[in-house]
Amino acid sequence: GLAGALITSGDGRKCIEDIKASSFGGTVFLSSQLAAEEDTQHIGANVCFDLDAYENANDKVAFEKKISGMHGIATRQTSIGLFAKKYFSDEVDPVLTASATASLMDNTGGGDYILLSPEVFDSDDSCADAMVQLCEEMSYLDVEGATIKSRLLVSAMTDDQLEECLMMGISKYIVADETGLDMLRSIVEEQGKQLIW
Q: What distance lies between CA 88 and its chain's CA centroid?
């Protein structure tokens, strides 16, 4: 399993200080903006670049160089995060999103992990259905190195979404609270699998 913390914004500086002061042994996924502002070498942060920021960047080459530079540091891993609500709705074609993710990975050598975690999701099933569709499209990608399925970290949103993602072979999930963990545990056990941290 993979234990970790995802710090994207808000009280990120306090979270970083708390992690530095603790004996936290998990992976810290830190937004590229916070990584640029803070000294993160002591926590071995995995720098997470937001695909939406890349797609909206005026200078995509500079953005790619930033990822390549971070990835080039021996102890540094990089991730690509899909957080914008548009990726988990019918606003953006999942095929195009998967293609943009693969292009960014190919151009930078980054993308040790791909985080699929909407900042906000609707209580109806449309967001979860879009997540499943995006996972399917991502799983078709052929990139250098580890398979895409092994890189995906997917938010646990609904029972049906988790069941479908597990059947696809996705094995890493983001849970926000105890309720999400209980939901994941229940579905994993129903499928005769084990939850490992």
A: 13
